[in-house]
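Example record

One chain of 148 residues, shown exactly as stored in the release files.
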Amino acid sequence: MEASAPERGNANEPLPDNLVRDLDRDELSRLVREVNDAGISYQQMATRAEAAGHPLSKPYFQKMATNSVTAAPTPDRLRALAAGLGKPLPVVQRAAAVQYLDYRATELAGYDEDVRVIVAHLAGMEKGERRRWQAMIEAAERSKRDDE
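Predicted structure tokens for this chain:
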């Protein structure tokens, strides 16, 4: 007598809410996949991280891409991920918060992607560099008002 295959659920059945939420929470994993899809190998990511002084293994990047890392990365690993991905640390931290802590970012709601990218880059800068950018933006605004 042959053993029958285990019965599988109907593919048309809706997923439970908690499973849908967990499947949707992969912001950091998605960032790793996007960088990989853009042509950067997991080994290149690991090499970048090590060159920046934050070694992280190729297998860790691979596991992160497949959403197989079950514990939130440590601050050191977040720095390594940011270096390996070539992304500002605040972008990687936010993605980790969404994926592992169910964080919902609303501070830039309503702005387009360009504004969010600019703010993320500014947030990753040293304080002195941010002050220089602020001075340039304020000077540009004053110049526009003077021209009117």
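Notes: The chain has eight helices and no strands.
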